Amino acid sequence: MSNKILLVEDDHNLLETIKYNLLKEGYEALAAVDGAEALDIARQQKPDLIILDIMLPKIDGFEVCRILRKEMRIPIIILTARADETDRIIGLDTGADDYMTKPFSIRELLARIRALLRRSKMAETKYPEGQQNLILGDITIDLNRHLVTVKEHPLELTAKEYDLLVFLVKNQGYVFSREQLLEKVWGYDFAGDTRTVDVHIRWLRQKIETDPANPRHLLTVRGTGYKIER
């Protein structure tokens, strides 16, 4: 069965171009031209992935993302016409898994779609008995339930924040470059935008560290990348 992708874009020409390429790749393509329609279709059709423009009529993409993230765990790629870091940070903070700045390469978009779908499929796999929990100080990761708690208080993590935390905790003490994290966590087999990694690290620290400005666990290794330490 082909993956179902919801494309939310009010630019008719861009919508038709992306939709054509999705169909060509064998995906089932759904389309919405405003935020309200996007919410209706997402709730009814339960797509496997959403491509979401920020500037939308009725309800903007940020709010659509925020609402959907509370209701379902669907990979979301946001599209922004501005290279402004603020848009990217807001988008990721509202629960998006990735972003692309217009204009963008259709080939790269398709690669990112494949990567997110692959990671989403892997996340659905149950871990064997005896490997349900990962422990990092006061942080507990329940792999079967995809639940992260700090001192028994649950954290609200985006799908990508969760994937990043699990990968680093499983590889405690090892240093990974931004490029390596893009490959291992995002599944990109090309030179992606390493700022995506920095933004996710920043927001993950806000959630798991007592003092994000002076982290104890999620550390920066200057000139190299990031690592998790107990």
Question: What are the salient characteristics of this protein?
Answer:
Rossmann fold; Arc Repressor Mutant, subunit A; 2 domains; globular; 5-stranded parallel sheet; single chain; 4-stranded antiparallel sheet
The secondary structure category is alpha/beta
Supply Rg: 18 Å
CATH topology of the largest domain: Rossmann fold
Care to count the β-strands? 11
Give the overall shape. Answer: globular
**Highest-level CATH class of the largest domain:** Alpha Beta
**Can you tell me the residue ranges where pLDDT is under 50 for at least 5 consecutive residues?**
125-129
Order of helices and strands: EHEHEHEHEHEEEEHHHEE
Largest sheet: 5 strands, parallel
Determine the number of helices (DSSP H or I, runs of at least 4 residues): 8
CATH homology superfamily name of the largest domain: Response regulator
* N→C terminal distance: 42 Å
Strand share of the residues?
15-25%
Can you name the CATH architecture of the largest domain? 3-Layer(aba) Sandwich
Give the overall pLDDT as a whole number: 85
Strand order of the largest sheet: 2-1-3-4-5
Question: How many separate domains make up the residues?
Answer: 2
Tell me the quaternary state: single chain
Helix content: 40-55%
Describe, in plain words, how this protein is organized in 3D:
It contains eight helices and eleven strands. The chain is of the alpha/beta class and about 230 residues long. It folds into two domains: about 5-125, Rossmann fold, CATH 3.40.50.2300; about 135-230, Orthogonal Bundle (Arc Repressor Mutant, subunit A). A five-stranded parallel sheet has the order 2-1-3-4-5, with helices on both faces. It has a four-stranded antiparallel sheet with strand order 6-7-8-9, covered by helices on one side. The chain has a two-stranded antiparallel ribbon with strand order 10-11. Strand 4 (about 75-80), helix 4 and strand 5 form a beta-alpha-beta unit. Helix 2 packs parallel to helix 3 (about 60-70), helix 4 crosses helix 8 (about 195-210) and helix 6 crosses helix 7. The longest helix has 18 residues, at about 105-125. The N and C termini lie far apart (about 40 Å). The model is unreliable at about 125-130 (pLDDT under 50).
